[in-house]
C-alpha cells in the first residue's frame, strides 16, 4: 500500500468542497433560489468528477477511499454550518402563552415583528397564540425576546413554503 499524503489531501479537499457545495445547493434549491442553485451545481459537478477520477484511478489503495469518505462526512457538516450561518429564507414561529392578556403581541410589534394573534383552547384552558413571520437570521433574537417576556411560552418554528400578501409580501420575494 502506497502512502501518498499529497494525493490523500487532494482527495479529501476535493470531496470536502464538493459535498459542502452540494449541501448548500440542496438547501438553496429547497428555499427556491432558482438561479443560484443551478449555477452552484455546475461548479459542484466539476469538483465531483475531479475527485471521483482521482479515487477511481487508485482504488487499489484503501486510504484514498478513506480520505474520500472523510471528506464526504466533513463536507456535510461544514455545509450545514455554512447554511446555518447564512440563515437563508424565512421562518414562521408559533408562540403560545397561558396569559391571554399578555402584552407580548404589542411588545413584539414594537420591535418590528409582524404578529398575528388569536385565542385558542388548549388541554388546560384558554391560550393566546401568536403567529410571527421573520427572517431566519432574526429567529434566535425573537426566541430570546419571547422567553424574556414569558419563560413558560411554548414555541414551534417551521419554514413556510409559500408566502403571499400581508406585511412581508414585498420583502419576501427579494433575492430569489
From TrEMBL:
It holds the Pfam family DUF2179. InterPro entries: DUF2179, DUF5698, UPF0316. It is a multi-pass membrane protein. Its main location: membrane. Residues 113-165 form the DUF2179 domain. GO terms for cellular component: plasma membrane. Belongs to the UPF0316 family. NCBIfam families: PRK04164.1-5 (NF003194). This is UPF0316 protein SAMN05216375_103146. It comes from Trichococcus ilyis.
Amino acid at each position: 500500500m502506497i502512502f501518498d499524503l499529497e494525493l490523500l489531501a487532494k482527495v479529501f479537499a476535493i470531496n470536502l468542497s464538493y459535498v459542502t457545495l452540494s449541501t448548500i445547493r440542496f438547501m438553496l434549491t429547497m428555499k427556491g433560489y432558482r438561479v443560484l442553485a443551478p449555477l452552484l451545481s455546475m461548479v459542484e459537478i466539476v469538483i465531483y468528477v475531479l475527485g471521483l477520477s482521482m479515487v477511481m484511478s487508485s482504488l487499489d489503495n484503501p486510504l484514498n477511499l478513506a480520505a474520500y469518505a472523510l471528506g464526504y462526512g466533513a463536507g456535510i457538516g461544514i455545509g450545514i454550518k455554512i447554511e446555518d450561518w447564512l440563515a437563508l429564507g424565512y421562518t414562521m414561529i408559533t408562540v403560545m402563552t397561558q396569559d391571554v392578556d399578555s402584552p407580548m403581541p404589542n411588545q413584539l410589534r414594537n420591535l418590528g415583528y409582524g404578529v398575528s394573534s388569536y385565542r385558542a383552547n388548549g388541554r388546560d384552558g384558554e391560550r393566546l397564540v401568536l403567529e410571527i413571520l421573520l427572517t431566519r437570521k432574526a429567529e434566535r433574537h425573537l426566541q430570546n425576546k419571547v422567553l424574556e417576556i414569558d419563560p413558560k411560552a411554548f414555541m414551534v418554528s417551521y419554514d413556510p413554503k409559500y408566502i403571499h400578501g400581508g406585511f412581508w409580501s414585498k420583502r419576501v420575494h427579494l433575492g430569489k
